[in-house]
Amino acid sequence: MSSDHRILIATDVTGDAELVRRMLANEFSHVDKSVDPDKAVQDFDSLRPNVLILAFNSLDKAETYYLGLYRLGKQVHALEHRTIILCNKDDLHRVYGLCRKQYFDDYVLFWPMGHDAPRLPMAVHHALRQLDASAATGPSVAEFASQARKLAGLQLQLEQYMERGTEHIDHARDALQSGTQAASGLDGLASRLHRGELGSMVEVKDAPGLQREINQLKAMELVAFNKTIESAVEPVRGWANDLKGALSPGLESIHKLQALVKRVRPLVLLVDDDEFQHKLLRRLLQEAGCDLMSAMTGTEAQTVLRSRLPDLIVMDVQLPDTDGITLTRRIRATERFAAIPVLMITGQSDKGVVVKSIQAGAAGFLVKPFNKDLLLAKISANLRGAESPSGAD
Questions:
Q1: Packed helices 119-137 and 14-25: angle between N→C axes, nearest 10 degrees
Q2: Structure pTM?
Q3: Domain end position, chosen among 104, 138, 172
């Protein structure tokens, strides 16, 4: 475990912060305190802790603090960290529910102080081990699958360009062979001689003989010109064939990768405080071969995003703690999440809302109640990365 990990204790009681710091100081090198509410965001953004310990004497204060970080902070959205909340026995069941929903990562029954003093440092050790394991494992299978799905469009586009390039080569050769300027010029000269237009310079005594000579000259000229064309075109054709041969193993690998990707179910995050929508969308996505993650609030959505990256976010415009447009803008501004498409849903067909959603970076828009087939089509298009920003449907 790295000794560079930083731990931040957040509370509004200086004595409690010092008590917790002393409990951790013997085992961890970098333990900081944040006790000034006015500097909460500044402390977090500057210290960038790996583990955040919420040591407030009430659960409401802890929730308010963490919500404030997400609303005003610049680092909490993207920084990989774990949260441990210190609670009292009256809040035990409630904090358990919040951790179960991934609002916080872990909790310690801290007030009143019991006999299990090592429980807190042990929780910190567990949190740091999780972070180290996450860093060691690298990208998830779902992240690889998400990138692999995008290769399908690239593969098709590449094959189309190769086919089109071969067609252009054939058309260019055919066009040049079908008629040349030299042949046209000789025909024009023969016609003028027959009509006597060049009588002052040339007298034609044997018109049929002249025509035979011109025809022989045309044939010789065309043969030479065609050879020149073939010598110019064939290297290009050979290059195109060589390119196809060189790319064939790679294209075959893409085919195999696509077959493997089909076995990985895409992951969709639904951010909506309507439980009925969660049940409905879960059923629809299961039919479409997708898995669903749920978040009822904007803060919960951002917390979930820290642990798992979905392939698509379906975002309600109206949320209890923020609005979906603001949250979408925040997600798109965070490098780690910027590539995840966001599909907005709302119960109001307001052109202003649509425009703001698209400006915030939304990939599409749906108005409730939406058509099942249209919803699945938009989800499918966004999972393929094929849909460009559009208006409401």
A1: 70
A2: 0.62
A3: 138
